Amino acid sequence: MTIDYKIDENDFLTHQLFVASKSDRIKRKRQRSKILVPLIYVAFGLLFLFQDKVSLTIIFFIIGLLWFLIYPLWERRHYIKHYKGFIKENYKDRLGRTATLEFNNDYILAKDNGSESKVLTTELEEICEIPTTIFVRLKGGQSFILPKDKIANFDNVKARLKELATYLKIQYDTDEKWEWK
Fold it and tell me: pTM to 2 decimals?
């Protein structure tokens, strides 16, 4: 099966955010930032409470609460801004190019504006489907990004990828509720 499609900045952004959302290190960092800082403010608030400085106690409790509620929103936008800059710097030559992928049971042939690469299907690690995209993830950490809205006959492509996953005995994960949060 052969497919042709163009990939843009939003497709790369979706991929970067998806990988970040699945990274244990980034999950721990985000959780720590969300909880640890408000706890420090509350601890200082309790310290001031024991010193009978009620106004400082209230201020520190409010700052801790605001951090807990507002920081996740800021952090979400911060990651998006960071990855957009990363994509513009590192993928600028790949944006808007027509890519061609040919899926066989033994290899995937990728063609992109004069370059061609052949990847053995034994290098496939998993296939992940989210609401807008399918990621064919390789063992080396790279992925083929397949935006659903830019591929003709997408249902046939999806069926072929499921068939390939079964043939290779790798996971085909579907997360239809995934979103960057």
Answer: 0.86
